[in-house]
Write a structure and sequence with these properties.
- The protein has 281 residues and is of the alpha+beta class.
- The protein is 38% helix and 25% strand.
- The chain contains ten helices and eleven strands.
- The longest helix has 20 residues.
Length: 281
């Protein structure tokens, strides 16, 4: 039995102080993005292409339109923003930097607010990470920023026949059990100095991707940086260096480099609900 006052599990309700805190947070971050040359876009809640962004499409809330084409509630904004700007609005704007403040939805009834941005046709991820770091500094918080490169675990899995699920599931003990000297060194990497040492003994086939990770780390101004070369995230579209921001078991942000329709771009999302909990504490 559903009572009149109940709301679905996973949905969000803001009122009073929490609604004001949410609005103030969104306004502050939007102002910072505006200063950095980003313009706002609000995309439709419904999408035809969410399966291309989400690893597990069982998380999508799906139904059919009037032509029996599959539609999903928006579970991720990145690829839709890029497609809309480059395909639908391409003749009316040449602007490359966009931000949005809007919820995402996942099965069965979960909604999460996020503040995100996409930097279209730009490929220096350090530029975007430094903007992220400036936002964190302006919010007066100092979470861990974890830097990774998705190509490293993918290459290791392919070239050395190591189960990719070890990386996807973070099964570090199983990787240690393989007793491979250079792999053990990579597992222990936490900072620039560790990565430099690991590169010296790493196989040639992964050195270029490790050096790309190192070069990015050297350009990052944010101080609370941790390097995790073997981390494998869940978003399908990141195809190069990427990052996530963590504090108190909350993931505050995710971002990285990706390609859409042959265009290399950058993007991140700040998770409003997690940020509000951190700021409240």
């Amino acid at each position: 039995m559903v009572f009149e006052h109940e709301i679905p599990k996973g949905s969000r309700l803001y009122f009073g102080k929490t609604a004001k805190a949410k609005r103030n947070l969104e306004n502050k971050v939007c102002d910072l993005l505006d200063v950095n040359g980003f313009e706002e876009i609000i995309t439709p809640n419904f999408s035809y292409s969410q399966h291309q962004a989400i690893e597990n499409d069982k998380k999508l809330i799906k139904f059919s339109d009037e032509k029996n084409e599959q539609v999903s509630l928006r579970a991720d904004s990145t690829l839709d923003v890029v497609r809309i700007i480059t395909k639908r609005l391409g003749r009316t704007t040449s602007h490359k930097k966009w931000f949005y403040v809007q919820p995402i939805f996942s099965y069965p009834s979960t909604e999460d607010y996020q503040i995100g941005c996409e930097w279209i046709d730009h490929n220096n991820i350090a530029d975007l990470i430094n903007i992220t770091g400036n936002i964190l500094n302006e919010l007066a918080i100092n979470p861990v920023l974890q830097l990774s490169n998705i190509n490293i675990p993918k290459l290791i899995s392919k070239e050395f026949e190591i189960d990719i699920d070890f990386f996807k599931n973070g099964e570090i003990s199983k990787l240690f059990d393989l007793d491979i000297v250079w792999l053990n060194q990579l597992i222990k990497v936490k900072d620039i100095q560790d990565l430099e040492k690991a590169i010296k003994i790493a196989p040639e086939v992964i050195k270029a991707e490790l050096e790309k990770l190192l070069n990015t780390a050297n350009e990052i101004e944010y101080k609370n940086l941790v390097i995790a070369p073997l981390y494998h995230g869940s978003l399908k579209y990141y195809d190069d260096v990427y990052f996530r921001v963590i504090q108190d078991n909350f993931v505050i942000s995710k971002g990285g480099q990706y390609s859409s329709n042959g265009i290399s771009s950058l993007g991140f999302a700040l998770y409003t609900d997690s940020l509000l909990k951190i700021l409240e504490d």
